[in-house]
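This section describes the prediction task in plain terms. A model, or a person checking by hand, is given the sequence of a single protein chain and must write out its three-dimensional structure as a string of C-alpha cells. No templates, partner chains or ligands are provided. The sample shown here is typical of the held-out split.
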Amino acid sequence: MISAAGVTIRYGKKTLFEDVSIKFKEGCRYGLIGANGSGKSTFLKILAGIEQPHMGVVSVDKGMRIGFLKQDHYEYENVTVMNTVLMGHKELWTVHEERDRLYSLPEMSEEQGIRASELEEQYADLDGYEAESYAGELLEGLGIPSSIHQEKMSTITGGYKLRVLLAQVLFQKPEILLLDEPTNNLDIKTIKWLEDFLRNHTGVLIVISHDRHFINSIATDIADLDYNVIRVYPGNYDDYMEASTMAREQLINDNKRTKEKIADLQEFVSRFSANASKAKQATSRAKLIDKLKSGQIEIKPSSRVSPYIRFKMSKPLGKDVITAVGISKSYDVPIFNDVSISISKGEKVGIIGTNGVGKTTLLKCLLKQMEPDSGKVEHGASMSASYFPQDHKDGIGQDAATLIEWLYRYAPDGTDTTVIRSMLGRMLFSGDMAQKNTSVLSGGEKSRLILSRMIMAEDNVLALDEPTNHLDLESIEALNYALSLFEGTVIFVTHDREFVSSLATRIIEVTPGQVIDFKGTYDEYLEKEGAEFFKRAAGGSMLAKN
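The expected answer:
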C-alpha cells in the first residue's frame, strides 16, 4: 500500500537513515521504534509527503488516502470541535461548505439549484448524512462529551485539543494511518479505547509510541529504526525484544567462531607457506581466510543508548513521610473533598485517573507546592523532595543557559564542573552537547536534564508528574529500573500502564466523585475493581482555564 525505496535523510554530517527500502503491507499494524533523535518522526513525515527525502522516493498505491496526526494544537482555535473533526475529510468538508453556502442564500438561481442537487448527491456518496454521528462517536470515545462538540477549540485545554486532532485523523477513515505519539495526554481509559479502535483498522497503520503496553496491544509488526536503516520484525514489542536479542547474540557467536577458524587457518599458513610440499595447501587456506573475512557481517554500534540513572539519598528518611488530613480543593468545581492520606517510607505510590480530574493538583497539595482550601498536610522532619513537573517550563525555567550552566545552579556548593560534565554524560549529554542551550532542547532531552537535577539533589522523596511523556523506550526502562531500586519514597502520576504496573506498591485513583486509596499493586487494583475502573467518567474538566 505504501513503500519507500532508497530513502536517505542527512542533516549536515549526521545521517538519520540511508538507502532505506521498505514496503508496508495491507492489514499490518507497525510499531515504529528507535532512539530519540533517530529520525522516527521525520520518516513518518516523509511517508505522509510533508517532508521530502534527500534521496529516494515514497510510493503510495493509487486511490489510497493517508491520515497523519497533526501536532499543532492551535490551528483550529476559531472552529468548533465538531467542525474540526469534519474538516479532516477534505473532500467532504469542501462539499459541506459549498452546500451550506448555497442553502444560506435568500434565493437560488436555477443554475445554483442544479448545483445544490449535485452537491446533495456527492454528500450522500461521501456518507455526509452520517458524518456528524460518526464524528460524535469518535469524540466521545476519546473522552470529549457531546456537551462541548459545538464549542470552539479555543475553549478547551491543550490536552483535549490533541484528542480532537486525533479524532480528526481517525474520522477520515484513511487506508494508510500514520500516528506520532497518539497516546500523549490520553488517560488509561482512553488509551484502551484507542487500542480497541486501532485493532480494527484494516489498511496500514504505522505508529510511534513510547507506551510499551500500547505497542504490545496493537502491533502485528515492529519496524526498528537503528544503524541508520529500518528492519521489520514480526510480532509485538516483546516479540521484537526477544528476536532482536537472539539475532544479535547469534551474529556475535557466528563472528566469534569465524575468527577462531581464521586464527587456526592463519597458523597453518604461517607455518607451512614456505614449505614446498605444503605450499599448495597453505595457498588454499589463505584463499579460505579471505573468503571468511569477506563473509563476516559487521556488528555496528546501536543508535540506542540508555542513560545511567541512579537515585541516592543524602540523609535517611523517617517512617512517616507525608500526612494529609481532611484536605479539599476546588476551582470552578470541587476537585477533591475531605481526603486523608498517609504515605510512609519506601512506598511507591502511583496516582492515576482520567485527564483533568485533579491528579496534579493532589500531588502538589501533598508536596505543599499548593495550599488546599481546607485541611492540612504535614511532612516528616527528615523529608526532602525532588519534583519532576509535567510542564517542562516549570522544570527548566525561561532563562536560556547552557546545560552546564543550568545544572551548576542546582549543584551542591563546591561542586567541580567535571562532576557536572560527568553527570550530563551519564544522561547522554556528552562532549559538545553539554554546551547546548536549554532553549533548543527536545522534550526527551528536557526530561533527562530535569532527572539530572533530581539525581544530584539526593533527596529522599521523589515526586514525578507524567515522567514518561517524552522519553524513549530505553530511557523509560532506565528510569523504571532506577526508581525500583530507590530506597526512599516515590510518588508519581502516570498514564503508562507498564510503568505503574511494574513499579507501584500502592494506587491512588482520583475520580470526579472521590479519591480511592488502595494499598496494593496496579494489577491487584484492577482485579479488585474489575470493569468498574474502565466505566468511570471519561471527563474531568476539559474547559480551558483563562
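For orientation: Residues 537-546 have pLDDT under 50 and may be disordered.
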